[in-house]
Write a structure and sequence with these properties.
2 domains; 11 strands; elongated; single chain; 288 residues; five-stranded mixed beta sheet; alpha+beta; 27% strand
């Protein structure tokens, strides 16, 4: 349930904060450049919450009267461009029109509040989409990786990192394949790939190298590679990495593929140790 007074206070706070106001302006510019206002009722939305700025996304909630629900085709347009759109029925507390003493709150000269049914449309927009469409001058769009200097937190990578990774599917840059374990991950956006690269490179003692590729593969993902010495100690550290990725992505169901085997294995440490080569000798004898 939303309170009209709090909605108005939120708008006032936005106008007092130039950073928030710019984010909201860019958010609306995305709507404009995606021709959202061609779809019925989308222009009638009133901001009730946000912009809530997270590490890789921005979220805003808009309110529509029950008889003015926006055309879902507009939501599909946003979804096709990487946004997440959620429609839900809710209520807005609005001040009652004063017609008698019964309309006042007891002991005050203020009106009572009555709930009015409304539609709430929550839009979660990836920051890369906001940058690509939201900048006033598209030629001025630049990469900003200042977020890499701040701590990454639970859920920051949710929905933007594929919970399936590869083991030894690519050749090592750091040495011979028999001596190096190569992991590969898929990220939806370059910012996320850089974040994952930075997290792996700075967070694990055994890692030899982490590298995010600046272009997408044929499936539309940005690859992130991580290389570890081929040893049981590294396997334990890889297990720690996967455990922490479960927290960062809020996805507990991780899988992996090994070498040229097309099968997807449910990730567990003992499964990984059984499937992959944990020593150079085993790699030489069993893999190649």
């Amino acid at each position: 349930m939303h309170d009209l007074v709090e909605v108005l206070k939120n708008i006032q706070r936005i106008y007092e904060n130039t950073g928030q106001l710019k984010v909201l302006t860019d958010f609306e510019r995305v709507f404009d450049r995606l021709d959202m206002y061609l779809y019925k009722n989308w222009k009638k939305g009133e901001l009730v919450e946000g912009p809530i700025v997270e590490r890789h996304r921005v979220k805003c909630s808009f309110m529509y009267r029950t008889d003015e629900m926006p055309n879902p085709e507009g939501g599909t347009r946003l979804t096709e461009n990487g946004c997440k759109v959620l429609y839900k029925k809710d209520q807005l507390l609005e001040p009652r029109k004063i017609e008698s003493y019964a309309d006042f709150r007891p002991g005050t000269k203020k009106p009572k509040f009555d709930p009015t049914p409304v539609w709430i449309v929550e839009i979660c927009m990836p920051k890369p989409v906001l940058k690509a469409y939201g900048e006033e001058n598209k030629e001025n769009v630049t990469e900003d990786y200042s977020f890499l200097d701040s701590s990454i937190e639970k859920g920051d990578l949710r929905e933007y990192v594929d919970p399936m990774f590869g083991v030894d599917r690519y050749k090592s840059k750091m040495g011979e394949d028999k001596d190096v374990i190569v992991l590969d991950f898929n990220a939806k956006y370059l910012d996320v790939a850089k974040d994952l690269e930075n997290f792996i490179e700075k967070g694990y003692n055994e890692v030899l190298d982490a590298d995010a590729i600046d272009s997408t593969n044929r499936h539309g993902f940005y690859k992130v590679f991580a290389e570890f010495p081929r040893s049981r100690k590294s396997v334990k550290e890889i297990d720690k990495l996967v455990g922490e990725l479960k927290i960062l992505t809020e996805d507990k169901d991780w899988e992996f593929k090994f070498y040229k085997d097309p099968k997807r294995y449910i990730y567990q440490l003992n499964t990984l140790e059984q499937i992959m080569a944990v020593s150079p000798l085993r790699y030489t004898n069993e893999v190649v």
